[in-house]
TrEMBL record:
Protein name in the entry: Threonine--tRNA ligase
Cofactor remark: Binds 1 zinc ion per subunit.
Organism ancestry: Bacteria, Pseudomonadati, Bacteroidota, Bacteroidia, Bacteroidales
UniProt binding sites for Zn(2+): C338, H389, H519
Subunit structure as annotated in this protein's UniProt entry: Homodimer.
GO molecular-function term, one example from the UniProt record: threonine-tRNA ligase activity
Organism: Paraprevotella clara YIT 11840
PANTHER family (UniProt xref): THREONINE--TRNA LIGASE, CHLOROPLASTIC_MITOCHONDRIAL 2, THREONINE-TRNA LIGASE
E.C. designation(s): 6.1.1.3
Family membership noted in the UniProt record: Belongs to the class-II aminoacyl-tRNA synthetase family.
Name of the gene this protein is made from: thrS
PROSITE patterns: AA_TRNA_LIGASE_II, TGS
HAMAP family: Thr_tRNA_synth (MF_00184)
Residues in TGS domain copies: 1-61
Amino acid sequence: MIKITFPDGSVREYEAGVTGLQIAESISSRLAQDVLACGVNGEIVELNRPINEDASVVLYKWEDAEGKHAFWHTSAHLMAEAMQELYPGMQFGIGPAIENGFYYDVMPPAGTVIRESDFAGIEKKMLELAQRKEPVVRAEISKADALKFFGERGQTYKNELIEDLEDGHISTYTQGAFTDLCRGPHLMNTGVIKAVKVTAVSSAYWRGDEKRPQMTRVYAISFPKKKMLDEYLTLLEEAKKRDHRKIGKEMELFMFSERVGKGLPMWLPKGTALRLRLEDFLKKIQKRYGYQQVMTPHIGGKNLYVTSGHYAHYGKDSFQPIHTPEADEEYMLKPMNCPHHCEIYAWKPRSYKDLPLRIAEFGTVYRYEQSGELHGLTRVRSFTQDDAHIFCRPDQVKDEFIRVMEIIQIIFGALNFDTFEAQISLRDPNNREKYIGSDEVWEEAENAIIEACKEKGLNAKVEYGEAAFYGPKLDFMVKDALGRRWQLGTIQVDYNLPERFKLEYTGEDNQKHRPVMIHRAPFGSMERFCAVLIEHTAGHFPLWLTPDQVAILPISEKFNDYAQKLCAYFDEQDVRAIVDDRNEKIGRKIRDNEMKRIPYMLIVGEKEAADGTVSVRKQGEGDQGSMKFEDFAKKINEEVRNMTNKY
């Protein structure tokens, strides 16, 4: 008999060799119907994999990320099986599950191009194969046999992957006539896949290398119920309407230029106003929390990034060094702000009394992203981080974490990100050799993060083995209006850079000590945060933040002077207003300004000009009646005060 420990701490005994499915059946028949995969001592495996010794077990359903992963991983193999039938001679690369669905990189036979018009045929074939309820069978295979098997089938990309694998750790999964090189995990059979949708096709370089062949990447998603797919497609349509690239163009927030360069966003006046207002908001909060603002160059000597380790990490795949007329003088575009901030810390001796030192910068950094990976503001080559670095003593880590958590929660509240999750990433307890720093300082930092979350009432999920090699961290994931998860705020402890830069402070004992460095970015990057904010709000920003609060619409050109007079008055009262004095009918002006998501529209004509009033329309609510323009300005400022005073 073996002991199985469940997440709630309860323990049951089973015969050795019991499977996850049998455990689920012993609990309830309903659970057995719903369970998709099984976690055994932290490893996700198939439900029919025998468990032969005492273990901690978690049963994953569709609602769990691990359950979806197994479902979509198997669906990727199902799509490959369908394409193998539809396109004989196709070669296969990799087919992973992703956050929403899965994809497969394939090399179609010569002369074959997969287009959107082919999607329906692929979907039909996938469902036809799924209805056969084909078992998904795992097999361990030697490296030589794997090379022979895939080589005989002309799968050169698979053989290249096999060459990099260690013999004795290679497995395949087979369903029907399709066999794939894979570690798993998978469903037990394809029968639970009831609905599929091929969503997109694009190109991708093999193994992400621009010098390698360009493959076809087919994206899809699948569900255990047709109703779920219908709901997802409705969500997808709403997501298209909220696409930050579309709304950014409509609202004239940002642009890209091929001449300037791919992945290099340029902020237009309205977008710049939005972004600067966000920056000013955070600067005011940071000042309250004792941060000092700094500014550092956009470039740095190559040696700076060699010292920090960023050159080894980014150098090969980043923008190449800039050479000056002086021999052997090399600079690099700044990939991170932290090395510069380490130099600011090191420029003069520090005492324990000087700590914590909190320095902040809205610093623009540059990282090379492949053309195929660029996407609006969410994946760019130039972005600005709301970076801050806290240099503190080990005993100050907990308090600093609490303070940063407070800042992040203020920002989420002010921008209506009401639903968010937190994840604490700790060391792998079974493999501590890969982390730098002593056990003592790690335990102190890990406990500080856990205690800080408890003190703030934050129910954070703990993930072992997810810490960076240089320290534990706390990440915040927000859910937007469509329920999509985005990682935004992050707080990371770092023992690596203080060591690399030989940072010191003099302690109470008059001895030299290393400070702990905390990286902190509530927004993450301004570009990505603005993209998420645009899609979350569909461009309907809070009144305090929106670039234009009021659009003044004269009903004819006779009232343009009155409209301009109002605009000048509002400007004096710190109300952001524009005048739409185009020679268009008032209905057209209203529709166009609603498209620009301007919260208030003021219609002015003969009566309003004579009475010193405005006729007010509110976005999404329609006519609000007439009022004196001075009273309207007071109303706007009162609304903004009520919003911002909360934070």
